[in-house]
Amino acid sequence: MEEYKYPMWSDEYKESADITHRISCQLRTASKRIKAMTIDQATILFSNIIHAVNYWTGSTYVGSKKKPELEKAYQTFFKALYDFILSFRTMDKPIFHECADMILYQGTVYRYLGHHSCDDNTDKIEPNYNDIYVSWSKEPENSYIESKLYGTMTWMSAKICEPYYGIDLEGLEEAIYRLVGIECRLTKGDEHEVVFPTIKECITEIRYIEPEYEEDEEDDQT
Fold it and tell me: Which of 41, 49, 101, 207 is geometrically suited to a Cys-Cys bond with 155, CB 3.0 to 4.6 A?
């Protein structure tokens, strides 16, 4: 099993998409052969998962859409990762079941939609309901994300429950450490990220937050 490293620059998205597809292939193979995996193979695979998730969380700006090639690659990756985590439940050792429970998340999550710059169309953004994996947070408010978005922001909450599960990145951090001893950081700041599609039946609330504009100094002095 080969370990992959992502390019340093986020604009090299075609190479990054290819690497992500390769890691997805490794995950699909591992899901079928998990009981036969050696510790060395598991260590390389989890290292590749870390590289892929870190590129996911750090390669794009808040409010910017991923390139189609990269979005497709990560859709394949997260589906493969989800199936790999489910395969933990076929193992005899309790630690694998515990790790699956850490990663597979059910509960309330929150997401912002908005524009990356003031030059973008500032109309409010309606949610796209589909099976595309996107970033959610377990925290209802995020001042960092709010500071990076322009125009009207869309805020929404969702409740993940049967038959659905999200992929909890903090749980994945802990599971990787417990299984192969690698310490890693997969989330940024206090985002407490969960990866999950925007499924209409799971959405519980949508709000539109209008931008607040500061008044000119002359207006303040009248």
Answer: 207
**Above 50 in pLDDT, residue 222?**
no
Residue 156: left if φ>0, alpha if ψ -120 to 50, beta else—which one? Answer: beta
> Contact 184/172 with Cβ under 8 angstroms?
no
- Within 10 angstroms of residue 180's Cβ, the number of other Cβ atoms is 15
Tokens of 138: 């377990």
Residue with structure tokens 């497709």?
72
Cβ(59)–Cβ(2) below 8 Å? no
Closest CA to 109 of 59, 170, 60, 64: 170
What lies within 8 Å, CB to CB, of 137 at 6+ separation is 109, 110, 111, 191, 192, 193, 194
pLDDT, tens only, 136-164? 999 998 877 877 787 788 999 999 999 99
Amino acid, single-letter form, for residue 218: E
Starting at the edge strand found earlier in the chain, the sheet holding 107-115 runs: 104-105, 166-168, 193-197, 133-137, 107-115, 150-160, 203-209
| Alpha-carbon dihedral angle through residues 195, 86, 26, 54, given to the nearest 10 degrees | 30
Integer Cα distance of 115 and 62 in angstroms: 8
117-144: average pLDDT: 84
Q: Where are the alpha helices (DSSP H) in the chain?
A: 13-32, 39-58, 68-87, 94-103, 143-148, 169-180, 217-220
